[in-house]
Amino acid sequence: MKKIRITMLVAVVALFMTGCKNNKQQDAFSVDCKTLIIKRADAVISESYPATIRGRQDVDIYPQVEGKIIKLCVEEGQRVRRGQVMFVIDQVGYRAGVLTAFAAERAAKSQIATAKLEYHSKLNLYNKKVVSLYNLLSAKNALETARASLLQARAQRINASNSLSYTVVKSPVDGVVGTLPYRIGALVSASISKPLTTVSDNSRMYVYFSMNETQLRSLMSSYGSLEATIKNVPSIGLMLNDGTMYNHKGYIEAISGVIDPKTGSASVRGVFDNKERMLFSGSVGNVVIGTRKRNAIIVPQTAVFAIQDKSFVYGLIHGKALITPVSVQDMKDG
């Protein structure tokens, strides 16, 4: 910046930008002011969007069988691995069901063996013209019925075994255990209103936010297409609900590309690493996206003032400071 002397009307002096000062040694119509030559340059403009934070995968854990919880193997907030046992439901009745199913299957096998003997006996007698075709076909049908009974018994045995396995509730994913509303002794079933717990895979967090059509088109205009925008948009930041910035940058992974007619906005999904487990599923924040503007005219915020709904700056024209209207993007970052 440099200092120059300019002459202006007294009425203009009252509105002049901060930085000017009266020089008592000069007359009342002259002041010394700092000036700035405005040049074009690239700029990054940041905008924030309200967002909700979700684990990459939040899985509600429901029991598939009815019974009392006899063993609780995890604690709230504990990190679990896929396949790790979390709950054990009373198994006595289901073990009995498996034994009953095995017994029914063995009985069906015995019925098949008997039906085979009967059929072959009738076949020999039929070949000797001792029994009629009706008797032979009846024996054959009895054999097919016995075979069908075996298939049914086998299916019941598989169902009984599955039901027994369902009494051991395991985590389907890696993640962190949520609240545990049901404790040892609680009677649970597949129809309970609340899940046994929720396992959140929060090694990476999804951050969901929305952009209206104008914002989306403005972002796309810098990159040419939706696919190019997702691929080339700069890394995004996350302001937490306490006003602090999250210490890891994220990126946009998906943009729906469909404008919801009810809200006039499109859904956007960002991804952030969460190795330190500083982000919690269900919390909120603000996504901060920087958009690069090339060859932009950058004006200090302190040099701009508003009168009603219009913005103005002082422009130096022929040694005089004149109010000049300008159109600026609504940014307040200095």
Q: Ranges with pLDDT <50 over ≥5 residues?
A: 1-19, 21-28
The Cα radius of gyration reads: 39 Å
Strand content: 35-45%
Oligomer: single chain
Count of helical stretches: 5
Instruction: Provide the structure class.
Output: alpha+beta
Largest sheet: 8 strands, antiparallel
How many beta-strand runs?
18
Overall 3D geometry? elongated
Order of helices and strands: EHEEEEEEHHEEEEHHEEEEEEE
Mean pLDDT rating:
86
Distance between the termini: 17 Å
Helix content: 25-40%
Brief account:
Strands 4, 6, 9, 11, 12, 13, 14 and 15 form an eight-stranded antiparallel β-sheet that branches. The protein has a four-stranded antiparallel β-sheet with strand order 8-7-5-10. Strands 1-3-2 form a three-stranded antiparallel β-sheet, with no helix packed on it. Helices cover 27% and strands 37% of the residues. It is of the alpha+beta class and 334 residues long.
How would you describe this structure to a colleague?
It is built from five helices and 18 strands. The longest helix has 36 residues, at 92-127. Helix content is 27%, strand content 37%. With 334 residues, the chain is α+β, with helices and mostly antiparallel strands. The strands form four sheets. Strands 4, 6, 9, 11, 12, 13, 14 and 15 form an eight-stranded antiparallel beta sheet that branches. The model is unreliable at 1-19 and 21-28 (pLDDT under 50).
